[in-house]
Every structure is written in structure tokens, then in C-alpha cells.
Design a protein that fits this description.
heterodimer; A: two-stranded antiparallel sheet; 35% strand; B: 13-stranded mixed beta sheet; 8% helix; 29% strand; elongated
Chain lengths: 308, 279
Amino acid sequence: MSFNFNGVEIEDTFAEGFSMWSSRIIVTAINRKWANIAAQNMTGFATSVIACDCEAGIEREIPLESTPDHRPGTAIMVFGFSKGKLSSSMLNRIGQCVLTCPTTAIFNGIPKTDSDEMLDIGKSLRFFGDGYQVKMRMNDGLGERVRFWRIPVMQGEFLTEELYGAKKAVAGGNFLIMGEEERYTLEAAERAVEAIHSVPMIITPFPGGLCRSGSKVGSKYAFLKASTNTPFCPTIKNTFKGSNIPEKVNSVVEIVLNGLDESSVRRAMGLGIKAAAGAGGVKKITAVNFGGKLGKFKIGLKESLEVP
Amino acid sequence: MKVLKLKYVGQTSIPIEAENITPDRVAGKQISEIEKLPVYEGNKQRNVSDFFEISGDVAEEVGEQVIVLEGDTTLVKYIGSSMSSGKIIVEGNAGMHLGSRMTGGEIQVKGSVDDWAGAEMSGGYIRINKNAGNRLGSAYRGSPEGMTGGIIVVDGNIGQECGAFLRRGMIVIRGTVAPFAGVHMNGGQIFAFGHVSKRIGASAKGNGGFIACLGGVEQMLPTYIYDSTYKPVFMRVYLQQLSENLGVKEAANFMDAQFERFSGDLACGGNNEIFVASC
């Protein structure tokens, strides 16, 4: 079953989202360049939990007037399968990629009131100070007290909040863009990613937001737990039995997105599909699911397009 | 918010102890009951109505109660002592112990206050538009801890031993600071935008506490050692809060300032920090 949207065939199917724990941090630095360098390093090798310790991405750049220290900031979201996994991934990544990066400081990006749990990331990071770390408190008399840690580093000081908000979130939002040529799918996908990032609290963890390989569970090799999504590989569409590639489609790109809640993921998917469908040269858009066996969130393409 | 006005009409030259002038004690009462609340003139018990004319509205909830004190209340002590919520506005000066041991709420004094303002307070916000006396936000004699939370902002100058035994919370002084600021402090923050006199941080232990001197220091104790000159990021977070949330606009001028970091007091094995702006 499919329907037509702006001349593009949309398969009436759903993306199968699943639950993960997510946290958001704001990295600030002396300028935009160093904030982004820290954020890019911290979110490296975090595309998929198939082989990475977590899924992470840059959520957005934050102007200096909106950060706690009035320096340019970059918001990062990290997703893990459990609070423990999320905590350890964040600790390792902040410790190796942000603490080490010149001029940076980090702040909690999910307020306590919006969080399901508070993770004591900064409380653990403080031990890097080897006994010379200094605690610091804010908001006495103004609101809820917030504790920070100042850790001496060779370049000066690293500042981190003690607790970081974590929330049960939604991962696995996705859709596939099918086109006649690579240039069309790439252009459509780039437009889609841009539209997706207009929604707050969403990340697209793959390179540039795009996954060209796709993935499926298992493979013919016993040692490999996942392989490329062969039913959607155009170069073998007539060789692979049961290929899902329509006629005249020679390129497919997948966009994967994670978000803080289901409604944000649905809205972002809808905006992404609309942007892709309007790009030209796109033949069909569909999504990947496992028949509802993997995750509890069924995010229909049709429903996502109905979100204003 | 319900506003209750207390106009001082007393003629005495003896200080009045008026611990009952707090939102906690007046909320939910009739004005006739408030008039009969006890105050002390020296060692003699009197009623509130002996010194104040009362008008206005009484709130049912403490947090909804505003008390406005009019007239010359220079000799009225313990205004807002132990208050937990609501707001007090003092149109003129206030006597000693203003807001002492308060746990929440807000006090604004449009004039000056005498000694012991905010002593041992644990929460809330005190704003003094002119000067403050000695032992601002400090511990009472014999107590191991002074202020343990909340914020005091003084727009003018202050007396000696401000923040003595400070444990937590923040004291901000926009004018000059007399000797022994932060003596025995063991946590908390003191920001001084005016000139700071001698012996700051004497016998301070540290525990995350610091004194930021943004208007110069007369003399550092020899038991403080200089470590480094740098631009601490954490200072930006405080200065931004001071500028935007507490109306201390000059704080924004120091966002990119270099600070000299001193630590001590080595005389007591402390790791308290003193930051001196070097711009």
C-alpha cells in the first residue's frame, strides 16, 4: 500500500522506534570553532549501537547569549540502552574528548524538572582533578542549588556541572529516500536533514545525518550480527531475491533520527519527508521496520506527514 | 500579593526588638491581632501598635505577604528575623540583626542597615540599597557556621568581618569592604566590586569558598600564595548571574577579565581562594 505526496510515492508503512536513555550536554568554548571541535570529537564513532558504545550527535549550535557562561555553545545528545551504559559512554567521551579540548566547559542540557533521572557524570569527572578539584555552587537564594566542579588542567580550568539530566527517549526513527540517481537522493537527503534539525531535541547520528549502507539484523556469516540492508541495495536488485527496489531506482539513502520523545521524532520525520519529496528526482520514500518485534514505537510515515 | 504597611511612629531612643515583624508571624492574622504582637523596648515588653500604625491587607499564605515598613526604623532590630517566605520592604534604614537566621523570602532595604544583617541566614535574598554594618552574613559569637545559604547584595559599603564563618551562599558588595572580610570562611562566595581592605580571608579553610575582588585589594595576607593569572570560566557564570539576575550591572564588565588566583590561608592549612581582577 502506498500513497502519493507531491508526486512521490510514499509507502504506507512505519519506522519502528525503540526506547533508549538520552542525555543532553552543552559544550561551550572560547569561540564557535573550538565548541564544534569538542562536539565533533565527542560524537565521533557513535552512529549506531550495532557496533558503537552509544549513539550521539550534535543537536544544534547555541548562541553565546543563551549559554550559562555566555560563550558559543554546541548541544550534544547521547543515547544509550541503559542509564549505566549512557553514563559510562558520556563519562568516557567527555573525559577523552571534551576535558582534553582547549577552553571547553560543559553544562547540563536537560533541566532536572524535565528529566527522569540525574546522572552524576560531573561527580565522576571530578576525580581527574586528582584531589585539586574544587566544588562550586550556584543559585543559592535564587532557585534550586546547582553544583559544579572545577578541575585544574594544564591550560587553565575545566568546568562541569555535577549532574546531567537523562530521560527515556526514542531512537530508530527512519525513512529511506529512493531516487533514480545518486545526485537526486543526496540532494533530497541533505534537505531532509536540514528540515529535521529545525525540530528541537533531535539528532541524526550518522555521517551528515545519512546512512547509505542501511542495516539489517544478522548475516549469512555467523560472526556478524548485522549486515547491509541488501533488500534495498539497487546494484543487486535483480540478483537479490526479494529485493525491495522499484524499477528506475538506482540509489537509496536512509536517514536515522533519535529524539527526546515520540512526538518530536514523528514531527521531525514528517518535516524530513516533506523536504525530501520536494527536492525532485525522488521516486519513492519508505521506512524500515521489523514488523513491530523490535520496538514499541510505530511511527507511521502517513501520520508523520499529518503533523503540522 | 497582599501589602501590609507598618508606619513607625515611636518616640523612644531605645532600640526596639521586633522579631515578630515577618510575613510568617502576620500572615493569616487579623490586624487587631497583629497590633497586639509583642515587641521589646529595651527590657520591657510592648505591643507592635505602641510603635507602628498598621494598615493594608493581610494574606492567608505567608508567601503572599508583603510587609512595607515606613518611617525611621533605624532603631528597629530583628526585622525579618527567621522569616521563611514572603517579602519585606524597608523604606528607610533598619537596625541590627535584619534577616538574621532567615530561611527564605526576600528583604529589601532602601536605606542602610546596622550590624549582623543576614547573620546565620540559610536561604532567601537580602538587598540593601545603601550601606551595611559589621558582621554582615556572619556567625554569631561562638557559632561554628555563619551564613549557610541565600544571597545578600549590598549596593553601598560594608563594615568589618563580613561573611565571618561563611559556609554557603553568596555575599555581593558593590562598595568598599572593611577589614577581615571572609574571616574563618569555609565555603560560600564573596564578591567585592569596591576596594577591599586588609586581612581578607584570614583563617579561611576553603571547602569551595572564594572571595572575588574586582575593585582592588589593599593588602594580601602573607599566608596566601599566588598561583596563576588566568580567565576562569566559572567566574563568567557567576558574573553573568550577578549582572542579569541580581542587577549588578558592572559585573558584565569583568566577563573577560584576567584574575590573579591566591590560595590559603596557609596559617590554618586552608585552600580558600581569592581572585583579584587584574584588568
